[in-house]
Fold this sequence. Notes:
Number of helices: 15
Number of strands: 0
Number of domains: 1
Amino acid sequence: MRDRYATLRHLQTLDPETDHKLIHRVSSDHEFPWDYGRGLEVAIWRTCCVPVISEMLDGTGEFTHRAQKRYDDTRILLGEMVRGGYDSGRGRQALRQINRAHSHFDIANEDMLYVLSTFIYEPVRWIDRWAWRRVSTVEKLAAFHFFVAVGKRMNIKELPTDYERFERFNREYEQRMFRPAATNHRVGMSLLKLYSSWYPRPLDSVVAATLPCRLDREALRMLGIARPPAWARAVNRVGLRGHALAERLAPKPVARLMTRPTARTYPGYPVGYDLSQIGPGTDHAPLRETPSA
């Protein structure tokens, strides 16, 4: 049987500050590819609990009319930075696309800080609760250093200098800024519809009932989404625990079974798309560019 913890032991020999790009890539793409994606989905959902953020998202109409593309764009741009590094040619292009999209809006620095923090802490929290093993200290610190480096390149100011301080900011920001709002509900429901649309009928109805179980009661209240019934919470718990056990015992078959298209909007992904056309306000471009390995 494969030594399921061999990669972890290797990662623990690396320096989470100087080797953060490698550690984060291996952790997110190889150790927890499915769970990391679910953590990012929760991160996106939680940002909608902040009215100033949900108002901006709702005002663009992107999550109402092009939710799949917005989701795909986020995953692609983040994926480019993780796979090749944020200072690679394609990583720098991804950062330019992100900065260009943000330049159209007057976004407060602390709001940018909060969104950045969710990309660190929500996947960690998800993995610690639901994945086949917990996140190691090395992996947590590597994620912190990776996203702080990305934040610097996005011109985000006042970036915390250590993992615990940034996590305190994340918690305190939510306590101050989470408020119920109609825009929270509209964008939150658009995301629920998007996430459940990835499953065939009639499974999509069951998934739609269980997906809100991934949010805590406070986030559900901020989004105006009813707490799921007991049967849905039980199905969610059994399903995720079963997935974790299968991941521990048979990672390769589970990865093949659970792998979903990373970008439904772009046929042929991860090859044959123009990175400069990824992001809000862009149209599909001729298929001409292939990512580096």
